[in-house]
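Extended Data, panel c. Modelled sequence:
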Amino acid sequence: MANPAYLNDDWTNQVGQLGALKFAETARELILTAPTPFALAIGGRWGSGKTSMLRTLMRALGGQFLVHLGGEGTAFEEHQPPIDDALDPSKNKELKKRLKNVRTVWFNPWQFQHEPNPLVPLLQEIREQVRYQFLRGGAKQLANLVEAGIQSLGSLADAAIQVSTGARKFEVFQRMSDTLRQTAERERRESFSQPVDAQRFFLQFEQAVRQVLGLRAKETNDSARLVVFIDDLDRCSDAVVFALLEAIKLYLSSRHCVFVFGLDRTHVEKAVAQAGGYTDLEAAQYVEKLFQTRLHLPVPDATQWKTFIEGLLAALDIRQQAAEVELLATLLPPNPRQAKNYLNGLKLHLTIGPKEEPRRAILVHLLRVWFPDVYELLLQNPKEVLEDLMHMCREESPGDTVRKQYIHHVMENPLMADTKADPKTVLDPRRFHALRAGAARAEALRTFKQQFSDTFPTVADLKAHLI
């Protein structure tokens, strides 16, 4: 028996299928025309497609996704999934000319978050990826100039080891004895971490960028730019987030540089507050000052989302009637990663569970994914818990038993309640952020409760699907 097909969580360059084509075209033009230095933040929640958008923009600027194979120098492998025709530079002669002096670099700080200073691996990645792109292009006319810039980036990476950024300096010095602290301070005075030398570091980086872009001394070209894409920043520890932002702000924010971040604003602001010792308001202002523009990924409309769900079902070889497809498109939040995770599990349970009435499997698996604690209670005591669950689905009062009140608390969304109370005054911050993340599915939750109540009137209807 062949193994059933399942979906991975790989990114895609075909963002048009989720209604983000115009967004990508606009963002690309912004990257190419904004006066440098420039920093752009592309926001979105976990799984919303930030990596796909950043990869698409890099490809739309003529860049390649390079998989580092280890070793020294040019040990890379190219990976190019298909891209929407409207974004493909190979099909636009005018765009290809504009991209002549544009180089792209991909940096994932999550892969280097145990490095003492995130500035070091960032500079190393810029150097190695630029070197690969130059050698791959086969150009000889500016070889000496570009090679000088690459060598300069290598020297800066070595010097950056002694550059203090963000909270890292504080953490290191706090743990040192007086003698070691004095020694470290003397070395620090001799390194790039002093104001004058920090300025020299900045100027040397700017000169290196000009060289790798092929710009000779005193030559001006406002269209020449190094575009650095930074993804998964919101996966890093608070200290790494703050240190990297500080390093870019202090040392790399120079002419001809564009930094494009994919991030969850809430997490980054929290990290800055925690690692930098700021209040929530100060952290929000700190992040606001870092970016000249902040964009949020568009949410696909109902038709686009339904088409996307149909494509995932076809890839999984799940044959559903139109009514089931409509139900899935209504219930699943417009988040590609969450949809893939849910449908992978649904595929498994359709394989091992009852074959009749797939609508029941859809609803039970949604309960299993959204409210695992309630599902666990159902496994332990199906009859009584189903009665309490029906009480909840009919949108009645929380009830007079502890279990009814618990189910009501788990499944209801207090942010949607008709109340004038500020949720932050009655919820701890962690709970508040979790509820805010789920606020968008309020309509889907109402649909789910109605469908669940109509589909499972008795425990006998439900038991076969409790796996």
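DSSP finds 22 helices and seven strands in the chain. This feature is highlighted in the accompanying rendering.
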